[in-house]
Amino acid sequence: MKLSLFLIIFAGLCCCFMTNQLLQYHVIDEMKSWHEAQEYCRKEHTDLATVISMADMDRLSQDLGNKKVWIGLYREAGSSRIWQWSHPEVQFNESQSNWNGGEPNDVEIENCGTVRSSLKWVDLSCNEEKPFICYDERNSSHVIYAEERRNWTDAQNFCRNHHTDLISGPEQMRKLNVVETEQLNDLIFIGLFRDTWQWSDGSNSSFRPWNLNYDDERNVSSCTMLNEEGRWSSEDCGDEHPFICHDDHVILINESRTWEEALYYCRHHHHDLVTITNLDEQRWVQEKTKKATTPYVWTGLRYTCTLGFWFWVSDEVVRYKNWASPGQVNECDMSGAMETGGEHKWVKKHDEEKFNFFCSTF
Known about the structure:
Blueprint: H1 3-15, E1 23-32, H2 34-44, E2 47-48, H3 54-64, E3 69-75, E4 82-85, E5 112-115, E6 121-124, E7 130-135, E8 143-150, H4 152-162, E9 165-166, H5 169-173, E10 188-195, E11 198-199, E12 222-226, E13 232-235, E14 241-248, E15 250-257, H6 259-269, E16 272-273, H7 279-288, E17 296-304, E18 309-312, E19 334-339, E20 346-350, E21 355-360
Parallel strand pairs: 17-21
Antiparallel strand pairs: 1-14, 2-14, 3-11, 3-12, 4-10, 5-6, 5-10, 7-8, 7-9, 12-13, 15-21, 16-21, 17-18, 17-19, 19-20
C-alpha cells in the first residue's frame, strides 16, 4: 500500500469509532394525513419509512406497541402496474422474461405469476389457490415444492416464515430441474407479481407483507398503513395517523472513480466509504445498487498486504462477510466492491479500476 494512502486511511481509523447504522427509523406519535407525514419526514429526516425485509418489520414492531402507522408506500389512481419479484434482493429484468405465448393476458385482474411443466410464465389472479414453490438459501437443494394449495399472498407468507421466499428470478428458477416435471401439470405460483405501489423515497423494494384482505383496486389512490398485527393495509391517504420516518445514511455516487479517488470523495463530501457490518445493512446497500451504472460498486473494504488481512476504513472489524468466492487470492492494492447484479456478493478488485461507489453520511 502506498505510504500516503496508508496514512490517510490510518487517520480515518484513529478518529472514527461509531458503528454504522445505515438505516434508522423514527416513530412519530403525531396525527397527520399521509401527505402531511411525508412532508414532515422530508423536512426533519430523509423520508417516510421504506421497509425492505422482515428484519425491518421486527425492528419496527418493537417500538410500535398497538399503534397503526403510515409508512412510505403509496399508489396514484390509474398508475401502471409493474412486474417485480417477491424476493427483495432480486430485481425484475424485462429482457430475461420467460412468458408463455400470449401471456401476460390479464383475462381478469391477474397480477401474480405461475409456471407449468414448460417452465414458461403464466399470469393468474392472486386470489386463486394453487401449489407453489419456495426458495431456501439454507437448504442444499434450494427449491421446496409445496403441494398444498394457497393463494399467492398466503404462499408468500408461508415461504418467508419457513424458508427464504417464493422462488424469484432467473438464477433461482434455473434450479427448478430438481422439481419433478409431473408436479408442474397444474399452474404453480412463483415469486412473480405486479402492482401499482411505489415508495416515497423512490426506491423499488418489492417487499409487501399485506394483510389477508388486501385491496387491489388500482383505480383508487391509497396509502399504506402498518397495523397492530404487523401487516400492511391500504387506507385513505387523508386519514390521520402516527407515522414512521427514516434516516438514510448511505449514498450511491454515480461517478466512476478508482478506490482511492472514491475514498477522497466520500471523506471530503460526506463521511467515509460505506461499511457493512450485518445482513440488514447489506440488504439496504444492495437495494441501491439497482441504480448503479457500473458492474461493481466500491465499498470501504481494503486489504493490507503488510499485515495480511481485510479491514473496513471506518475501523470496523470484518465480522460479517459476503464474499462471492472466499478462495480468491489476496494481493496488494486490492479493495472490496459489491456486485450490482445477481446476488450482490463482495468481490476483490484492483483499486485502480473505476466503479461507482457508496458513501456513508455519518
